[in-house]
Design brief:
CATH architecture of the largest domain: 2-Layer Sandwich
Largest sheet: 5 strands, antiparallel
Number of helices: 8
Shape: globular
Radius of gyration: 24 Å
Length: 341
């Protein structure tokens, strides 16, 4: 859940103390507001919202419930999968060692002298090493399609058609919390031929209102036309395309990984790097919970593949605009324009 709170300087210390109790993280600060991110069961998120209501809740974006079954018994099928993952890791380690030996033989005495002077060898012969790459090609799922991928480009720099440049648009809707409202909204989107990549729904800052966060691919003009049609639905109170506005986005992922006792230390270290936490442990599995943007979740999932991923559950994107008006993408654009020169 993302929550934007009215926060004058005099009450921020109390807000931070409450956030620490609920293990919430501050993701944006402006002169008159703060935005916090918190995960947990519905009871925890409701209690957090009640605790913050004294300061004034400006906006709330939340996902639905996400769950994976807890493993209770040792499973032979998972044991076989775990053994296969362990063999793959051992073969990968042997390949890296062989590559290092070949590299050392090719360099000869000169290479050995450089190594003795403190030059560290490169694992894998320089083709990858230990550092993972944050590239668009690593993203998985519907984002692989060129027309939907925000990082995909051709010689001209962006994917263009006669109707303009395609990219995923993040759309935020406020609707009446009534039965059937989601069906009416998705019906409008489907009848006009739009595809929904991601959808997150949950109660907003008032119980009678819900916030829906959509990711819809298209051109700016097409998405603007879609918002016009959505505003005609009687239950829709507000519709906004926040793609070109600085905003905070979060997604929750649960991953169940095959892992015996000997591999838990390595897995816990990896989870710590991504600020993930362990939600469940059985004799041969570990379930990890992590929140973040699309790239972060995709990279963690890729690094967990060698352990053997058994199940994955992900929410859709939730987003709120930043009152501070600054985000990483904006800073990169300013840097490209030599704003800081």
């Amino acid at each position: 859940m993302l929550m934007k709170i009215a926060a004058e300087p005099g009450v921020r210390r109390e807000i931070l103390d409450l956030a620490k109790i609920f293990r919430a993280a501050v993701v944006d600060v402006s002169e008159k507001s703060m935005m916090l991110s918190v995960t947990g069961d519905p009871g925890k998120t409701r209690a957090f919202q009640r605790a913050m209501s004294k300061f004034g809740v400006v906006a709330v974006a939340r996902t639905g419930k996400l769950a994976l079954r807890r493993e209770q018994a040792y499973n032979e099928g998972r044991r076989v999968q775990l053994a296969a993952a362990q063999r793959a890791r051992e073969e990968s380690a042997l390949d890296r060692a062989a590559a290092m030996r070949r590299s050392g033989e090719a360099e000869g005495d000169a290479g050995q002298e450089e190594s003795s002077e403190g030059t560290a060898p490169v694992l894998g012969g320089g083709d990858g090493g230990d550092v993972y790459k944050l590239e668009a090609s690593d993203l998985t799922g519907v984002w692989d399609y060129a027309v939907l991928n925000p990082y995909w480009s051709d010689d001209a720099g962006v994917k263009k058609t006669k109707r303009g440049a395609y990219k995923p648009h993040t759309v935020s809707l406020l609707v009446d919390n009534q039965p059937g409202v989601l069906d009416r909204i998705t019906g409008v989107i489907a009848r006009r031929g739009y595809n929904v990549q991601s959808l997150g729904v949950g109660p907003a800052e008032r119980p009678e209102v819900s916030r829906i966060t959509l990711v819809v691919p298209g051109t700016d003009a097409e998405v603007a036309k879609l918002l016009t049609q959505l505003l005609k639905v009687i239950s829709v109170l507000e519709a906004q395309d926040i793609t070109h506005i600085p905003f905070v986005e979060r997604e929750l992922m649960l991953v169940k990984v095959a892992c015996d006792k000997g591999g838990r230390g390595e897995l816990m270290d990896l989870a710590g790097i991504f600020r993930a936490k362990v939600s469940d442990i059985s004799g041969d599995t570990v379930t990890i919970e992590v929140t973040g943007d699309l790239e972060k979740l995709a990279q963690l999932q890729e690094l967990l593949e060698p352990f053997g991923i058994l199940e994955v559950a992900r929410t859709g994107r939730v987003a709120l605009t930043r009152d501070s008006g600054v985000n990483t993408a904006l800073l990169e654009e300013l840097k490209d324009d030599n704003f800081f020169a």
